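Researcher: Final request for today, and then I'll write up notes for the group meeting. The sequence and the SMILES for zinc ion follow.
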Amino acid sequence: MPVGTQGKFRELYMTFCLRATYFLRNTGTVKVVLGNTYHLENRPGSEILDMFNGLPAFINWKRGTLTDSGGFQMVSLLDLADIEEGVAFQSPVDGRQLFLTPERSMNIQNSIGADILMALDDVVSSASTNDTRFEQATRRTIEWLDRCISAHRRPYQQAMFGIIQGGTDKYLRTTSIEGLLGRNHHLPGYAIGGLAGGEHKKTFCEIVSQCCSRLPRDKPRYVMGVGYPLDIVVCSALGADLYDCVYPSRTARFGTALIPEGVLRLKTTSMATDYRPLDSDCDCLVCKNYCRAHLHAKIKKDPSAASLLTYHNIRFQMRLCTDMHIAIAEQQFTPFVQAFVRRMFPQRPLPQWLREAFELATIEV
Ligand SMILES: [Zn+2]
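Model: Predicted protein-zinc ion complex:
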């Protein structure tokens, strides 16, 4: 899922306008976009979204949508005052004191009207060393989930996912998983939260594997905030299905294109005379019409270059996911993974964490 903060893709210069959705539709396989509840509540706000009967109509997006609970934005943006009832914080927009409870999060997400919404969780950065805080967050996330279940006004129209917390502690993760499984009939899908925050890759993979091995096989598993192409392949090998990340568009802003070998930095001087497309395997409009030298010349002066790179990067991620999906359906996932890592690490041995992750997934690389 590409992330559309405030329902827009900044790099594509489209605030609630047709072009944003036009471009996304043309990246081929984007089926779901993620909108940030916190930003959408600030602008355009629930009242306007209610008038349009929700975000999809407001941005003229006819495919899937997902909204986060709003909690993560607060943790990442703000000086957090943590209390049992919900999270209190100061708005970075106008300094107002705001307060988000599970009920309020559900209320806003019901107004936004996404197909998938997320229960409010108590997020602690995986880099934190405060064990008590992780215990508290694990317990509280389950308590808040019960309040979200009660407050959710449209359970038959909007699928609410519960979020597993517990940091990097396997015991806490088990507690969180068991708590969610006890409410399985309310949960059409599950998310693995509190990762991708700077923890060791080995630990990250072990937690994803632990969660996926315990979750129901017939419901989607969503690893939140994951978006490097390699991580998407690894998590899929470990049993996950769904990802969101700002990475493809954020890295495009810095002049970086995603390619099967890794990344291509368009600002480097070697690009000035490189007349190949970004990725010769790519079928996107950028790769069909522009060469690396053209984009290199543009990248420092013309903001449209970042749009072009965003477009390619999103298409790259979508093709990766489609190819992976086909490989899984055709029982060709192991050869897919082998070809993928061989291309990314042609001469070098695989990093140890990666070999261990594929061992966990029983995939021989
Ligand atoms: Zn392309």
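Model: The chain has two domains: 5-250, 254-360. Residues 278-279, 282, 284, 286-287, 312, 315 surround zinc ion (CB under 6 Å).
Researcher: Thanks, that's everything.
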